[in-house]
Structure formats: structure tokens, C-alpha cells
Amino acid sequence: MLKIISIVGARPQFIKLSPVSKELRNFFVEIIIHTGQHYDYKLSESFFQELEIPKPKYNLEVGSGSHIYQMVTIMLKLETIFNDEKPDGVVVFGDTNSTSAAAIVSSKMNIPLFHIEAGLREFNKLAPEEINKLLTDSVTDIYFSPTDTGVTNLKNEGKIANVHNVGDVGIDLIFQNTDKINSADSVFKSLNLVKDNYYLFTCHRAANTDSKINLENILSALVELKRDVIFPIHPRTKKAIDKFNLRSYLDHKHIHVIEPVGFWEIQNLVKNSHITITDSGGLIKEAYYHRVRAVIVDLQTEWVETIDEGWNFIAGPTKENILKGINEYIKPTQHSNCLGDGTASVKIAQIIKEYLNGKK
């Protein structure tokens, strides 16, 4: 059998890998490499267990550090592994340092590269994720876009061959596990939450956690909300709140700070929330799937279709806009399932098989 290497390094990529890995293993010997970009247990190993992902054969243990340090360390280690394993193809996900580092090594070593979530753009090179998107898509062999917008972006860049709109693989995972999501209700019960009567809040992007002004604006909006706010706090955000002396914003009785929760639990919380307030690209699209409003505390999103249909609202890190997005919300009538029908992973595995068999 042909050999595929799948490379992940951060929580969103573990989620995407779960359904894809199951389908790849129908046709290939799959080797998983965990770069160790996320090394906190709740953001890493626990997800492998919860999502039933096979244990990685390699963990590069890159840990924290500058973007350059992470990428160079990953690249040097991947070169050795690729020489030993001699893969027929490499699968990468999303837009992390792990993604772009693996893309560069694959292209330099003439190994076919398959990019899941290709074509998404924020059109802001100050965002490190945007640089990773551009680097990866410059050397990709097969582009798996989750949306029509992604396909259009690639076409505008002159990339037409081997471009496929397959839908979003994260939606596959939700679509296939409704029972697990519905039964993951420990937080819901422990806080005596009432369906459609609380807000779910998450915040972790560097643009917000590295800026006292942005973070304070966001937290000050939470104080004025009239419903309970459930806040699974990211380690980076916790450090930033302490660093900027913003802890007092969390002392209000309607704001409930909890530890990070598993994937099924967070889906349950999104599904039953009145509105989800977030800067997470994953939660933005997951809220759309669950037909829940997302107020985005960031200046842009790749998931533009969800904005166009009225389910999501870009507020940015501005108190007034956040409150506007919450208080003036009218539930839309249109929901086109623009992010896919739960079959993206099946399509991806089949397309890769046909491509590699053709080359062979």
C-alpha cells in the first residue's frame, strides 16, 4: 500500500484529522506526525483520545518559541523523518506554522502535498496565519477547499488545476457524532444552564491576547451582558489577563470561567447557547452548523459565506460593536449548509487515491 504522512500540531488540526484519518486508512498506510506546537495536555493528547485518533508515530516536541524557531525546528526534523519513511504523499491542515513548515519540506523533497482548507484568505499579512496560508498554497499539489470562496481565491491567484471544493472536514466530525455531542453535557448540568439563555465566549488569537486595549474592550462588553457567560479559558488568554491586570472583569457573578473542555462538550455548549462570542475560526463555522449566531471579536474571517447569510457578525475587538451584534440580532431565514454535507473526508481520500495511483 502507498504511504501517506499526516501532519498536525494544534488543536484545530486534531479535529480535522479525526475524520480524514479514518478515510485515508481505507486506502493507505497512514503515519501521523505531531509537531508538538500545542503541548498542553488539554489542547493535545486529550483530543487524540477523545476523537479516537491513532497515536502519532512521531512527536517532534517543538514546543513554544518564535515563529521562525518553530518552523526551522519542524523543518529539520521532518527532513530526517521523510528520508526514513519515504512517503508517497503528505497531508497538511489549515494555516499553522506546522502546516507551512511541512509544505516547504515536502516541496523541496518532491513529495506530493495535499492541503486541506486550501484557498482561505484573510487578506492581512500582519496575521501569521495568512502568511502560512500563502506559503502552503504556493507549493500545494492538490487543493481541498471547504467553500466556493476558497476556490475563487485560488482561481484569482492563477491556481485552477487540482482544486476541489469538498466541504469542511470539521463538519464531517460533527455530522457523524450527534449522539456524543448531545450526551456531553456535564458543564451544562453543573452550571444549571438553560438552553438559549447563555452566551459562550472564547478568545485566544494573538491579536487579542497580545493587546491590552483589545482584550479589555472585549471583557468590558461581557460585563454588560444580561445572561450568563460561559468562558472556557485558553492558557494564552489566562496569562494575558493576569499580565494586563484585567482579572476584575471576570469577578462578575454572571461570568463563569471554566477550564478548557473537550470537543464534544464545546459543541454541546455552542449548540445550546443563545449566541457564541469568539475569535476562533473553528467555533465560527461550528456555530453556523448548529444554527447559532456567532459574534466575531476579530476583524476578519475566512468563513465569509456565514457572514453573507447573516448567521455571523464581525464586531472586532470593540465593545460597542460586540454589544450591537448581540442586542440587534435577528435570526436569519437562510441556511444553505454552505460548509458541506458531512462527506468531505470521503471525497478527499478518494481524490488522493486516484491522484497517486495515476502518478504510479
Describe the structure.
The protein is α/β, with parallel strands linked by helices and 360 residues long. Helix content is 45%, strand content 15%. The protein is built from 17 helices and 13 strands. The strands form 2 sheets. The protein has a 7-stranded parallel β-sheet with strand order 3-2-1-4-5-6-7, sandwiched between helices. Strands 10-9-8-11-12-13 form a 6-stranded parallel β-sheet, with helices on both faces. Helix 15 (304-308) links the parallel strand 12 (293-296) and strand 13 (312-314). The longest helix has 19 residues, at 67-85.
Brief digest:
The chain has helices spanning 11-24, 45-50, 67-85, 97-108, 128-137, 148-156, 169-176, 178-183, 186-190, 206-209, 212-223, 235-243, 263-272, 281-289, 304-308, 319-327, 344-359, and strands spanning 3-8, 29-34, 58-59, 89-93, 113-116, 142-145, 163-165, 198-201, 228-232, 255-258, 275-278, 293-296, 312-314.
